[in-house]
Description:
This protein is mostly helical. Helices cover 44% and strands 7% of the residues. Strands 1-2 form a two-stranded parallel ribbon. The longest helix has 14 residues, at 74-87. It is globular and about 45 Å long.
Amino acid sequence: MVEIDCLDVVRLLSFGAPPQGASSLVRHIFELCKREWDVSFHHVLRSSNRVADCLARSVAWEDFTTRLFRVPSAPVSQILYVDGSLLS
C-alpha cells in the first residue's frame, strides 16, 4: 500500500499504464508495479501525512541525494510528539 497526498498522482498511478508522454519517473513506477507483488495507491489527506510533508519541504527540489536519518529532525520530532499525544 502506497499512501499519497496528491489525488492527481493517485489517479495517474491507478490508471494501469503510463499515459503517452509520461516522465521517466512515472514509467519507472509502472515498471516496478509489474513485479510479482500487489501494489495499491491510496489517497491520504496532507494533514494525515504531516511527517512526509515536513520531510519533503526540508530538501531542495534539485537535490536527489539519498538521506538516512538516524534520529528525526526537530520539526519531525515535534510532529511525532503531537501525534503521539493525540493517541493517549
